[in-house]
Input
Amino acid sequence: MPTPINRIVLRLIPAAFFAAVLTHRSAEAAELRVCVDQSSPVKAMDAGIAQAVAKQQGLQASIVPFDGSGDDDDGLALSTFPKLLASRCQLVMGFPLDAQGGVAPDGTHATDAYAHTGFVLVTPRNAATTLDQLPKGSEVAVTYMTTPNLYFSAHPRITAQIFTTDDETLKAVAHGDVAAAMLWMPYVAGHLDKTAGRKLQVSPLAEPHAQWNLVALYSADSEAVAQQFEQGVDALRRDGRLQKLLMPYGEVAGGAQVATPHKVALRSQASMPGRLIKVSDAVAHNGDVGLYTVQQAETGRATFRSNCAICHGPDLEGRAGPALKGATFANPEANFHVGDIFKIVSENMPAPAPGTLPHEDYVNVMAYILQQNGYPAGSTALTFDSALKSTVRLVYREHTQQASN
Ligand code: HEC
Output
């Protein structure tokens, strides 16, 4: 039997509880705590956007620096982002998402994109602005393990010069050692100095996985703050300030011309904070790409030539056997998966002597088939097991572009 005093306590507890929650909420909402990558060439601009958004929303901005360069060649692990969001900030700025369907790292959500960026073609002024315009046999510099390494197979007229760092890749074109370079726009904008910028031009690449969106990451706990961030960005976009916040950075690029691509509407022309992570890893995280390494596909090409080309054609175009490339083979409506096709390859092929090749050959040939169907390489090698188990859908990646031509 509760005494009167107990009744009062019982009534007070929920009231106190709600009061605490409300106070907590409003204390949290008063602050916008944003992690900014200190290894990014445009960290100052990144912070500038956070400050402007906070001010617009009546919040107090605090910028939490972190080192996004990663410990090794593979860049920053994607698991770093949920950790940052759990302990240090409400938003991580400048995360790049593949415009062809990128997803946020596990345990995080992405805001609407606040900027658009991507991989660009850097050439001498008045030279080619697309890969197809480059003279036959042109050498084109790329950075190891970045998305543009994929573009050579679709453009056999050009050859790759692969460098280990973006600095070397940019220098190669600035010094005239190569006809062009393919680089990540935020890097280029931060590193083209005035002299080089006058001699070089920058054009967007109209290639698969060349267009990226920049978003802020947040965890479920910070949903409300993320919404305020989006509202703030919208307001800045409407009144033209976002464009200005992004633009100085284009000018720092030394007056390099940034052409507007025809196919992709740029939300804002300049790009955003630098390479938080190796872009190939961000692609890999989409789950349907980055399934194999460049090396595997290269080796697979030779294996394919000697074991499969006689029936499937040297360019996978089909002869006695069906085509292994294109919209008919990798048809979205067929709802076929990488594992399904690998089962056929490893158990039934080559047709005259099914299942007789070493596992490694089957894996490399599969990598080559994926590459030829527009899947980008990544940093993790395909294995016999992962190929068999893969539930990644088999869909020709250049389907829409080629079909519309
Ligand atoms: C002697 C001819 C021949 C050789 C050599 C051969 N294939 Fe085939 N392949 C075929 C024929 C014919 C079919 C279609 C009939 C079938 O599905 O059983 C086929 C089907 C396939 C399919 C299924 C295609 C689809 O659309 O479902 C794949 C994948 C494939 N081959 C891959 C390979 C690979 C990889 C090699 C080399 C390791 C290879 N084939 C070697 C004749 C050949």
